[in-house]
Write a structure and sequence with these properties.
Elements: H1 5-20, E1 28-34, E2 37-41, E3 47-50, E4 61-62, E5 71-73, E6 93-94, E7 98-102, E8 105-113, E9 125-133, E10 136-140, H2 149-155, E11 160-164, H3 174-183, E12 188-192, H4 210-213, E13 219-221, E14 226-229, E15 239-241, E16 249-250, H5 253-271, H6 276-289, H7 293-305, H8 309-321, H9 328-344, H10 348-361, H11 365-377
Parallel strand pairs: 3-5, 5-6, 10-11, 11-12, 13-15
Antiparallel strand pairs: 1-2, 1-14, 2-3, 4-16, 7-8, 8-9, 9-10
Helix pairs in contact: 5-6, 6-7, 7-8, 7-9, 8-9, 9-10, 10-11
């Protein structure tokens, strides 16, 4: 039987450590991809990807296709934290609280709560992840709100804390970050979830990191997106700022144009509801500019509302057939809309098939309830 390299190395190191009567402590490699996504590589070479983001929404840059993962951990099902589908079914994904083992990496998921007012569509679930490798304990908060005493107790010792920080206090206020650091006995801070320079001026609801850094001491700016961390940090290192991955690329022109058209259409519908046909044409242009499940879903919805349900079905069927890298939210929304259209045509079996997928894969309470109601009735 052929085992991965890290599996073989893992057992060799563990056996050697047991024979020597000691525990294993070694440095771990940390790679920053961008936004809130990191790769933590253990001494045995096990690569844990944390919170990969969807390439086509909000951030203005795309997730590198070259990132290798042995496992993925997800804090919550927002598109900017959960693109776990990029690796297919062969790579395990952990998202629920609990304790897991992947090679020489220990994963501890602690139940938290998404910072308000966001995440209500999935009951504000947020799993704080503690990743332990080589004796180094790294905690990733995701979009958690203020850390509770229960959170701190369940996490235990934390050597490195990855925390959302930006100049607009999008997730946590500076005082809340300071309180979390104090509760966890002063770990090394790694800021994340802020607007990155050098790409599009997006996302507009996130601030840059500089205003927050101005009030911090012991700030070290790396000239790379990779470093090696040990359990004991170097003197004078209180905050470690990574460069984003050099493989990040800004959105292509078609995607940029698509979002500009869709934003224009939304503004028109909000301010001039009588101009629905003009807004609809903008949505169509967005769908034609770039293959993106968000644009195609919105165009299908316009078609369905205008009475052309057959065309809406065709758009949705085509979009879903090629949406392997499309985000969870709009894939599930597209399936729910397709199920509605099938049901209206009397295609109950096909509607049930779509709703079963929604029931199995969606995290949005509204869609889950809709799928449950239909399936129970049929």
């Amino acid at each position: 039987m052929c085992y991965p390299r890290w599996v073989k190395k893992h057992y060799i190191i563990i056996i050697a450590a047991l024979l020597a009567g000691r525990s294993v402590h070694a440095d771990v490699d940390v790679e920053y991809i961008g936004h809130a996504s990191f790769v933590i590589e253990s001494p045995d070479g096990v690569r844990i990807v944390v919170d990969p983001f969807n390439s086509n929404r909000w951030l203005g840059f795309r997730y590198p296709e070259s990132v290798h993962a042995d496992a993925v951990v997800v804090t919550h099902p927002h598109y900017d934290h959960d693109a776990s589908y990029y690796w297919g079914e062969s790579v395990p994904v952990f998202r629920e609280p609990g304790e897991y083992q992947v090679g020489d990496v220990r994963l501890i998921g602690v139940e938290g709560k998404h910072a308000g007012p966001y995440g209500k569509d999935f009951e504000q679930k947020n799993t704080i992840w503690l990743i332990e490798a080589g004796g180094v304990r790294i905690a990733h908060l995701g979009d958690n709100g203020p850390l509770t005493s229960t959170n701190a107790r369940e996490l235990g010792r934390v050597d490195v804390l990855m925390v959302p920080a930006d100049g607009d206090d999008h997730i946590l206020k500076p005082s809340e970050i300071a309180a979390a650091r104090q509760a966890l006995s002063d770990p090394l801070l790694v800021p994340m979830h802020y607007r990155l320079e050098g790409f599009l001026d997006l996302p507009r609801s996130l601030g840059p990191i500089e205003p927050w850094l101005e009030n911090q001491t012991g700030v070290v700016r790396l000239d790379s997106n990779r470093t090696r961390l040990a359990r004991e940090r170097e003197p004078g290192r209180d905050v470690l700022v990574f460069q984003p991955s050099p493989e990040l690329q800004a959105w292509p022109e078609g995607l940029r144009q698509g979002w500009a058209k869709l934003d224009e259409a939304r503004t028109m519908m909000a301010n001039h509801p009588t101009q629905m046909s003009q807004a609809g044409m903008l949505v169509k242009q967005a769908a034609e500019s770039f293959e993106c499940i968000v644009f195609e879903f919105q165009w299908a919805r316009v078609l369905a509302q205008s009475g052309d349900k057959g065309a809406a079905v065709a758009v949705l069927e085509t979009a879903l057939a090629r949406a392997a890298r499309g985000d969870w939210q709009f894939r599930m929304s597209a399936r729910a809309l397709l199920a509605e259209l099938y049901a209206a045509e009397g295609r109950t079996a096909e509607a049930s098939e779509q709703y079963r997928i929604v029931a199995q894969q969606s995290y949005r309470t509204e869609l889950l309830e809709k799928a449950k109601t239909f399936l129970e009735a049929h």
